[in-house]
Design brief:
This protein is an alpha+beta fold and 107 residues long. The chain contains 3 helices and 4 strands.
Length: 107
């Protein structure tokens, strides 16, 4: 999912515990809504990496996005949640994702 939006995303970066959390909120319109209509919901994409790492190289980043049909009322809400999720990945409290592979591989 991240690759589809990477070049069009408005990326924002937060430094956290020696890692970078890169996040980008984006509009998520239902299919029936014309593209020129104001978005009704937002979602996000993101990844965690070491500073200066190239996320395009496999194994250099931990990508993440919300599961299922999770959406938010504003881009700011989506951004806030994305940073929270990225920090949980770094902290090791995320149920499915971890930076352990980044640490042990030396990337």
């Amino acid at each position: 999912m991240i690759d589809e939006y990477r070049e069009y995303a408005c990326w924002q970066t937060a430094e956290y515990e020696g890692f970078e959390v890169h996040v980008a909120p984006f509009a998520q319109n239902p299919p029936a809504v014309p593209p020129d209509v104001k978005p009704v919901r937002y979602t996000y994409i993101g990844y965690v990496c070491h500073p200066g790492a190239d996320p395009a190289i496999p194994g250099h980043a931990v990508p993440f996005h919300p599961d299922g049909d999770v959406s938010f009322a504003s881009a700011a809400d989506a951004l806030f949640e994305a940073v929270h999720v990225g920090r949980s990945i770094v902290d090791g409290t995320h149920p499915d994702l971890s930076v352990l592979a980044l640490v042990t591989s030396g990337v």
